[in-house]
Amino acid sequence: MLILGGTTEATQLATQAAKIPSLEVISSLAGRTQQPINPTGTVRSGGFGGVEGLVHYLQDQQIDLLIDATHPFAAQISWNAATAVDRVSIPRLSIVRPAWESEPHWIEVESNEAAAAILPNLAQRIFLTIGRQELSTFAHLTDLWFLMRMIDPPKTVIPPGEVLLARAPFSVEQERAWMQHYQIQAIVSKNSGGDATVSKLIAARELNLPVVMVQRPPMPDGKTVSDVELALLWINQHL
């Protein structure tokens, strides 16, 4: 079984699935984090080389089941996986954590570009919590100041401000302290869902700060579950 991972759910699933007799579990990580938390079992890192590369990998490794437990914003690998499993005729399951529910102080946008477009009229000091991959989208906003939180240092051009290297989860107290210390006036977040980073939304609500929330990209159709326990049931049904 191949798990497309990089999330808490993927790590938890690998640990539990490794206990299933006669099931070999391989976890694949994108390789973007310098010091990832490696799951139980065999781990590979790096891209597959598009749909064709993934098809060859599934065939070469004789994969019988594929679990897509990637981040809700990792759309490209999810679409590639959907196409590849159709080509090799194996079952695919997606673990999709529930999105956070909208709140009155949110401004919901479709993309990082849309978020960047509204910031000049919203705030001067912004907490940017979208990771490091898309920071360049905000680099042209040189009249604003950003606190940019991520796990590893950025490799692209970034907007003015300060980089904060930290790994979730964070407490509400931590988030509130950062927002107050840096005099944050607005937050930009992806609607990733889950518990690891929800504290920033609670702190923002308490401080009455606007949240620019980037909505999830479209994903391929297919069987989905919301948690690891349901994924384990699906696996056992397909063995």
List the helices and strands and how they pair.
Layout: E1 2-4, H1 8-17, E2 26-29, E3 42-45, H2 50-60, E4 66-68, H3 75-88, E5 92-95, E6 106-109, H4 112-118, E7 125-129, E8 145-150, E9 161-165, H5 172-181, E10 186-190, H6 199-206, E11 211-214, E12 224-225, H7 228-237
Helix pairs in contact: 1-7, 2-3, 5-6
Helix content: 25-40%
What structural class should be given to the helix and strand makeup?
alpha/beta
Strand order of the largest sheet: 3-2-1-4-5-12
What do we call the CATH homologous superfamily of the largest domain? NAD(P)-binding Rossmann-like Domain
**Overall shape:** elongated
Description:
With 239 residues, the chain is an alpha/beta fold. It has 2 domains: 2-97 and 218-237, 3-Layer(aba) Sandwich (Rossmann fold); 106-214, NAD(P)-binding Rossmann-like Domain (Rossmann fold). 29% of the residues lie in helices and 21% in strands. The protein has a 6-stranded parallel sheet with strand order 3-2-1-4-5-12, with helices on both faces. Helix 3 (75-88) links the parallel strand 4 (66-68) and strand 5 (92-95). The radius of gyration is 19 Å and the shape is elongated. The mean pLDDT is 95.
Short description:
This protein has 239 residues and is of the alpha/beta class. Helix content is 29%, strand content 21%. It folds into two domains: 2-97 and 218-237, 3-Layer(aba) Sandwich (Rossmann fold); 106-214, NAD(P)-binding Rossmann-like Domain (Rossmann fold), CATH 3.40.50.
